[in-house]
Write a structure and sequence with these properties.
Layout (H helix, E strand, L loop, with lengths): L15 E7 L2 E5 L5 E5 L5 E12 L6 H11 L7 E3 L6 E9 L6 E3 L1 E4 L6 E4 L3 E9 L2 E2 L5 E3 L4 E4 L8 E8 L1 E5 L7 E4 L2 E12 L5
Antiparallel strand pairs: 1-4, 2-3, 4-17, 5-15, 6-14, 7-13, 8-9, 10-11, 10-14, 12-13, 15-17, 16-17
Amino acid sequence: MSQSVYPMSVPGLLPTVSVWPRFSTRTQSAVSGRETRAAFMQYPLWDITVGYEFLRANSAFPELDTIVGLFLACKGSWDSFLIAIPNDQACTNMPFATGDGVTTVFQLTRTRGAGGFGFTEPVMNPLAVTNIKAAGAVVSGAGYTIGSTGLVTFTTAPASGAALTWTGTYYFRCRFTKDQIEFDGFMQDLYELKKVEMIGAPGNRV
């Protein structure tokens, strides 16, 4: 499980990105039409596709080699890496727990949703945490530590009923879905890389 970071912003180029969640459900239907369903995943895996219209491949602009180099280092789909997903890599005053006066260790989480709908997932690859608040008050940096998997350990247990929030950025942990990558040269030192497919989650699931 490497800590390599996918080069989402290679110099001068902005990739197109598609992201969608996927669950796993088994459905059995009786002759009457009545269904029984079983959900096998508590949290979704996220299918991520990144595409580039062109990438340069020379000593001054080694954009293609940067991406291909990560793919080779990961041995295709074997090893995982980190990636910052546009529009899903930062949060501000995000609730992640409620104090009970006893518990001192809590997992960072983030919630997606609006209009009365929300879904919470663990965040296990924090990049930078700007602050932690308890009942709206910023907790001193000496009052807690944050582990590499997003576990927040408070020196003193937060008060019962105190809402805990965090502000910061985070990665998804991903792996390539295939053991090959396809890129086509169309001009001198220029290549197409239409589709780089990955699967991942804000938690360490792959």
